[in-house]
Amino acid sequence: MAGDSASAAAAPHDGGPETAVVGSVRLAITVAARAALFALLGMLAWALLPFALGWIPTTVMTGSMEPRISAGDVVIARPIAIGTASLGHVLLVEDPDHSNKLRLHRYVEDTPDGRLILRGDANQANDSSPVAPEAVHGVAVLRVPYVGLPVVWIAEKNWGNLAALFVAVSALTVAAAAGSSAAPRDGGAPAQPDAARDARQTPHRHIPTTRRAVRRRARAAARRTTTVRTLLCLASLPVLITPQLLMAAPAHAAFSAAAPTQAGSFAASSKYDCLSPTVRDNPTLFYAFNEVSGPEAVDGSGNKLDGTLSGAVERVSGSCAGDSPALVLGGSSGVVSSPQLLNAPDTFSVEIWFRTTPGVTAGGRLLGFGNAQSGLSTLSDRHLYLTDTGGIGFGAATRNGNSQQYKAAGITSPGSYNDGQWHLATATMSSAGSVLYVDGVRVAANTGLVAERPYSGYWRVGYDSMDFDKNRDWPGASTDSFFGGSVDNAAVYPVALTASQVQAHHTAGR
Prior knowledge:
The chain has seven helices and 23 strands. By secondary structure, it is an alpha+beta fold. Among the domains are: 51-151, Umud Fragment, subunit A (Ribbon), CATH 2.10.109.10; 285-508, Jelly Rolls, CATH 2.60.120.200. Strands 8, 9, 12, 13, 15, 16, 17, 18 and 22 form a nine-stranded antiparallel β-sheet that branches. Strands 7, 10, 11, 14, 19, 20, 21 and 23 form an eight-stranded antiparallel β-sheet that branches. It starts with a helix and ends with a helix.
């Protein structure tokens, strides 16, 4: 009877359904809290570790670069040599209007005396004061969202948000540490292992347990609890002290905007952004090929003409500090096509960066217009192509005299560019004729070369028919319709670009 009474008395302490539910909820809260803390630490690491490389983490204080960069973001700037900044890049410079402050704006043009003119993406006008080349601290290459918000709140004396942050981090720390030990039982003794408890409940089995063993287990559990809580508290300290560290560093001072900023929102991102140059001069379509994967080429022009990749196409990833991503076409089936029928333009510009595969001398079509979205077009012109000798050609269908018949006409470069290096090919056309540029330099022109054949079709990168009425009449036309090599920043503009615009595109780089 005594044994039965003991068993009955012990029963309430044994784990039941209610205890299991409470334990599961407690475990879920602990795991979620720890995950949140370590996510914060990961973002802080992204913001601070580049400092070890000599790069400059900087807290953005205003919205003059919205929507891409918002107040509270931390931007990493990579130092560059004096005079090497490129148009279109976001630069960290000494503020020309306020001593001991910095400015983070985009480099948009030069003054006649060689100084840099900047502009905030959200501003209506260029900054009023140009910047000397030696005042450039670096080029922005990485953005970590939200991490610098406490710095902004301190500058604004927004103590409410700071207090809420402190409470939130403290609560996460407590929640993360709370589940590191089991709930005490029987007057403070730690919970016994499940195996020991099951054995204790098994009839006719005796598990010897001394007071010394119980105390030893209790002390071990307490040490584990203390260790976990100490580590979590230490892990949360950077979240609380980083704002003070960022505020103390001169490179993290406030940024000024030259004009009132437009209203914007925090551009939440699922990844940390590399800050590449913006699309310039309002193209009809612009394929930067920056996507990580998938069959889509996002149109950067804002016209929603997203392209489709097909065939032997390979994406090449880039880095924030080096080359931008690009697309490799296999030379046998790789192509990118625009999504919908468009009218063939009479005034336009086509432009593409390309690099031939070392050892491959065959030419191919780089970028042009055709009446088929896939396969070979029966009508195609207004195209840039690489000849088998490495030259660049540009061709369009013009009237054959006063008749309704058309002929293939074009211009070609005198030089060869199948050298395995990146080159920028640009062609412009208007009623004044056509001009061909390579690497920002005019290499050929023809005032009589105008597009006169009207039809509807698609813009395609890397492949389409090089025949004209079943003959290869284009000047220097390649024997291969596919281009084998790398391409990047394929663009079509609704105007004939000026020589200075083409040169600026080349200077800005990929």
